[in-house]
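Deliverable D4.2, example record:
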Amino acid sequence: MNKLQRSEDEWHEILTPEEFKVTRRKGTERPFTGEYWDAKEPGTYTCKSCGQPLFDANDKYDSGTGWPSFAKPVDAHNIATRSDYSLFVRRTEVLCSKCDAHLGHVFEDGPDPTGTRFCINSVALKLKETD
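Output generated by the structure prediction step:
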């Protein structure tokens, strides 16, 4: 896959200040405040920065955390992960594999059959609704 590369100035032009803080600076939106934390509409959640498909609404569930949570990505190749020690504990960061946007984190406390919880910032996503 070809990586999408933009300068910091280009990202500032494309993204809102909050989107930039989360996706380019690894920030986190406050729980229960994001556009999609309790959304139930069908569709595909794409990367807000580049449009790559990330998660299907059918795999979204209410984890009680206040962030959109998904059991799995639409395609494992569309996300990347890396170790994150920023809060003095080991977590696994989730990124868009195309543009390296920070999306959130993945945890091993999700529902069956995957057992994973992709805890994703709403501001990093765009829902492409389907009928």
